[in-house]
User: What shape does this take?
Amino acid sequence: MDFPSGQGSDLAGVVVAVGAGVDGIAVGDEVLGWMPGPAAQATHVAVPAVHLAPKPARLSWEVAGSLHMVGATAYAAARAVGAQPGETVVVSAAAGGVGTLLVQLLTGRGVRVLDIASEANAEWLDQHGVVPVPYGDGLRERIEEAAGAGGVDAFIDLYGPEYLDLAVDLGVPPDRIQTTVAMERAARIGARTDGRHNATAREILPELVDLVASGTVELAPKRTGSLP
Assistant: This one.
């Protein structure tokens, strides 16, 4: 990062002015979206219209203003491994902001999800159709037992490089291993590193808004300002 630098790309607010040639957005509209660069934490921002979507009244400002980055990252990760209905996908760190959306996107498509999780998150995961697998010694064996005879079809890592090695040990093909954090290890084994830039706002933002606003996808409860 170069300094001075802004921070924050997700946003939500009320339109106070509209540029020439913009259709479908009017002054007074409540919208959500994202900035092309890290400059969203301001009272007023100029945003390309294609980066915005209407904010439903039933969607809180807190959720609306934090949806795009985690949503696009989750969407890109799910798409990267090409998970199909009936397949088994392992996800590490699924109780974080990206992970909670990701596992629900996968289960909503008929994918069986195994999550490497702590006991503290097991109840939430189980309630959302995810099979929690406790981490620690013997993890590979527990995953293999939970996966059953069909084995693991894909692996999405949201935590660190050791899980890419685990995916390889489980026999997952490199092109079906995805990470958002372990870029160097991914380059060495040929895994995918798709991020939010691989899922543009125009493609997925309205879909994410509908899923969350309708209650089809639930954001895991967190205290405002807390870490995942």
About this structure: The mean pLDDT is 90.
